[in-house]
Amino acid sequence: MQTSASGPALKSDPAAAEWNGPGRKNRAAPQPRGHRENLTGYLFMSPWIAGFLFLIAGPMVFSLYLAFTDYNLFDAPRWVGLQNFTDMFADPRWRQSVKVTSWYVLIGTPIKLAAALAVAMLLAQKRWGQSFYRAAFYAPSLIGASVSAAIVWRALFSDGAVVDRGQQLFGIDAGGWIGDPEMIIYALVGLTVWQFGAPMVIFLAGLKQVPKELYEAAEMDGAGSWRRFWSITLPMISPVLFFNVLLETIHSFQIFASAYIVSNGTCGPGDATLVYTCYLYDQGFANSRMGFASAMAWLLLVAVGLVTAVLFWSQKRWVHYEEDGR
């Protein structure tokens, strides 16, 4: 046994070696179990990651490249720079598509949200058969975007159909709306308003969170129903209203299937329902101008992003959050 000036050397103690000074224990080395758990997590996420890279991110980057090329789906892309964008701004049909889409967003979205809020306020009250009515009003939103619903809607507004015969009962002989360039857009707006079920459910959830004490106090002060709506209901559900406005505005910019089916694939008589995505589809697949269509798609993305930014900027003026939620 070796000795030192202070006495015999102590044998190494594994338990004592774990301590680094009084009351301090050395940190244990990272265990390989954590690495295995991370690897397992990435393994389960790999289908989503692969799908995002190859089905979303990859095509988006490639379409950005195609936006600056002349590509007809058959020949190799040919770089043309900003030619697609200059041709787009000079195209009268493109300007018509912007006009129709803007009109649809500005008219259809507010009417849809107003109908959703009105029905939600009715369903928020306790009535007999409340669950049935909620399901009945929500059902159209499940099938409203389907091709079959658009076909039925086109049949309802055709010449000699239900709407046309109903007009004749009131002495209005205007014919069907589908063939009328001035009326077909209203049929399209009616279809989107009919699908108010999703925002209605969100409004209903927001209305349930408004304290009843506020309505009772306002009623005791003599406030009428309209005053209570403007001073209590709207401010209290403004975050929900902002969410619905944002979501429905983005959806309105993306309208395609209903406009294409209602107009029987012609985008309406006289381009009356030539929404932006309908013209994009026509240029990309009917005319094989995929570079031009890609430029249109990216311009639409920028426009939706700008509208979204404006909505977020404006929320500080009309959206009211709880003080601790700011």
From TrEMBL:
Query: In this protein, which residues make up the domain named ABC transmembrane type-1?
Result: 98-311
Q: Which UniProt keywords apply?
A: Cell membrane, Membrane, Transmembrane, Transmembrane helix, Transport
InterPro entries xref list: ABC_transporter_permease, MetI-like, MetI-like_sf
Q: Which Pfam families match?
A: BPD_transp_1
Q: How does it sit in the membrane?
A: Multi-pass membrane protein
* Entry keyword annotation includes Transmembrane helix: yes
Q: Which PROSITE patterns match?
A: ABC_TM1
Segments crossing the lipid bilayer: 42-68, 103-124, 136-156, 183-207, 228-247, 290-313
Keyword Transmembrane helix annotated: yes
Region of interest (Disordered), residue spans? 1-33
Protein location: Cell membrane
**Known PANTHER family for this protein?**
ABC TRANSPORTER PERMEASE PROTEIN (PTHR30193), ABC TRANSPORTER PERMEASE PROTEIN YESP-RELATED (PTHR30193:SF1)
Q: Which family does it belong to?
A: Belongs to the binding-protein-dependent transport system permease family.
Q: What is this protein called?
A: Sugar ABC transporter permease
Task: State the organism of origin.
Answer: Streptomyces brevispora
